[in-house]
Design brief:
single chain, 163 residues, alpha+beta, two-stranded antiparallel sheet, 29% helix, elongated, binds zinc ion
Length: 163
Amino acid sequence: MPTVELTDLLSHATDDQADAIRAAAHTAGVLWKCRNAACATDDLPRSARRCALCGFDREGEPIGDKVSYPYGPVPGDLLTALRGALVEWFTEHGRPRPDAVTFAYTNENGGAHDCSDWGVLHFGGRTEPSCDFSGTEVAEALIQLTDFEVPFSGAEMTVALPR
Ligand SMILES: [Zn+2]
């Protein structure tokens, strides 16, 4: 059985056929529907981790803290410090505050435990390249948070910011 592109099928289908194809694709998990009742974006591809419109994940949760911390619970006060430093940074610079910021752990730049790759800013389902937080309170808070143990490279940390 050949692998086909869903868009090829849909572009040659009648409305009824397209509905059936979409229904089958949802059942098969090729497509998923946003569970945010206020959004309900349909036909999100399997590869998408978040709704392209509102940013809710496949479990229907808004973007929230997600910290890969292989050696136990994340020290809450350090996460609070990082969140506070981020809020302050966006306020001070007059920049729109994102819903969350994702940092990627790296082992680059000689430091085995810094989040030196500044990751992305999340505005709903839209992402923008992150700002450079070098030399700021944000960088200091990141270093404090990741200084305990060496996180595995490739892990990400998402910090949600208050609205
Ligand atoms: Zn959505």
